[in-house]
Amino acid sequence: MKKYLIIPFLLILYFSGFTQNVFFSKSGHVYFLSHTDAIDIDANNHQLVSFFDIESGKIQCAVLIKSFEFSLATAKEHFNESYMESGTYPKAEFKGQVNDLENIDLTKPGSYEVNIIGDIIIRNNKKHLETKAELIVEKNKINASTEFYLNISDFNILVPKLVDHRVAKEILVKVSIDYLPYKK
Amino acid sequence: MKLTKAYTLLIISCITAVTFAQDDDWDSLLDQQLSEQEVFISAAFKTSRILNGQSVELLPKKGLDLRVAHRFAEFNTDESNFLGFDEASTYFGLYYGIIDRLNVGLARATYNQTNYGFLKYAVLRQQQEKNMMPVTVVFNSSVAYTSKKYSDQIRDDDFVSRFDYTFQILVSRKFSKRISFQITPTLVHRNLVESIEENNDLFSIGFGGRYLLVKRVAFNVEYFWNLNNSGRYGFEFYDPFAVGFDIQLGSHVFQLMLTNAAAMTENKFIGETSSDFFNGDIRFGFNISQVFSLGK
What whole-number distance in Å separates Cα of residue B256 and Cα of residue B99? Predict the structure, then answer.
């Protein structure tokens, strides 16, 4: 019978080993800014959800378009109804991979510069994205942050001629995510 | 034999463990997380009026809505009246978002030279499916002060008699991107009515709906079912009815409508609509809304 005892023991070892690889956040911060001479329009969202596997480097994020809060109050409705059509396309997604992990051990505390490559999906349009990111590893906690520009024409977002000068062609996006170990 | 059994179990356990550990169907896990977030359903209607009556839409904090509205004469009043364009009842208003859930508004209407103010508060807001809040509930209370001159001096001097109050509970649901519906139990209290046949307290239920035709154009219908309305000096009052379109151009919303109501404040259009829509007493009207943002 003693031999059987090893099984649950192995199982526990197995599970715990795996769950420590996977990190999760449901309060990631996304900021974006549309800068034009006429007006700056910016918004924050603190409800990005994300998984990050520190062993494989796989990373995946999703955020609801409707939960962006704008500094300019009246912009939110136009953003949702006219530009993003969030009723039809409720979320934005990123699916990617952290590169250079062979040189880095993310179980060790420290600050790491990495490249993330993947696809960003907005309004059913998939766009390849490569960006530098900073990973700050503490005990059982990882912060990932990055910034990049998105071209609105890549996502089939139509801006009426009348307000063309008020919406930037390129949108600055900043993302910062505090990950904790994922518990099922 | 025992050993083999043990190994088999071990292998099975390991396979199970692997499949469990690799059960990282992140797509569905992330979707599930998103579906649990508190997200309010927005834009059940394009602007703060369905057509005549208030809608559940509120201005965001620091939003300012400048509103201009006209109702012209009935088409069938006079042949030379050019579809009623020669006469107009007008309304100028400023609405403001104190917070996202609370709006205040002030307006002046030429109909009976009325000064009008309201407070609108969102008690409940419709959320996405999983959060079990299927409707938006907004409380609206308005006060109207009739400033016109009465020929009877006693009537003219009676300050209190010039006030009318309206209390409404606006309950709406956005069923889909295109279809929204609102039901509006209403109480209009008049401090003084013109004739003995009329009730000081008037009960009415409003029904309003919209169908979004394309992104920037919606078709709206609105009807108030008056429960205890009566006539005045032998003339009947009718339930206010309106059909029209919302047309959105940038931060402007134009509402073009056909209606039988000449007034634009609740106390008057619910209580004193003297034209019968279904008898052809139809007038053209419009509301124009321009929303500004006062600071960040």
Answer: 29
Cβ atoms within 10 A of the Cβ of A58, count? Answer: 18
Q: Both ends of chain A: CA-CA distance in Å?
A: 31
| B7 and B113 share one domain | no
pLDDT digits (tens, 9 = 90+) for A17-54: 454 789 999 999 999 999 999 999 999 999 999 999 99
Judge whether A26 is closer than 8 Å to chain B, CB to CB: yes
B2 and B110 both lie in a single domain: no
Beta carbons of A24 and A180 less than 8 angstroms apart: yes
DSSP state of A22: E
Same domain as B221, residue B95 = yes
3-state class of B252 per DSSP?
strand
Considering only CA atoms, which of B269, B167, B280, B281 is closest in space to residue B222?
B269
What integer is the mean pLDDT of A106-116?
Answer: 93
Q: Residue B12 is part of which domain span?
A: 1-35
Domains identified in chain B, total number: 2
CB contact under 8 A, A80 and B37: no
Nearest CB among A50, A61, A87 relative to B177 is that of A87
Closest Cβ–Cβ partner in A6, A22, A62 for B30: A62
State pLDDT tens for residues A120-162. Answer: 999 999 999 999 999 999 989 999 999 999 999 999 998 888 8
For chain B, the first-to-last Cα distance in angstroms comes to 76
Q: Are residues B204 and B93 in the same domain?
A: yes
DSSP SS3 for B18 = helix
Instruction: Copy the structure tokens of residue B262.
Output: 């000449």
- Distance in Å, alpha carbon of A141 to nearest chain B alpha carbon: 20
Mean pLDDT estimate for chain B: 90
Instruction: Look at the block and give the residue holding tokens 């020669």.
Output: B86
Structural domains of chain A, with CATH: 22-181 (2.40.128.110)
Residue pair A40/A172 in contact (Cβ under 8 Å)? The answer is no
ipTM for the assembly: 0.83
- Interatomic CA distance for residues B124 and B138, integer angstroms: 7
Q: Domain holding B275: CATH number?
A: 2.40.160.40
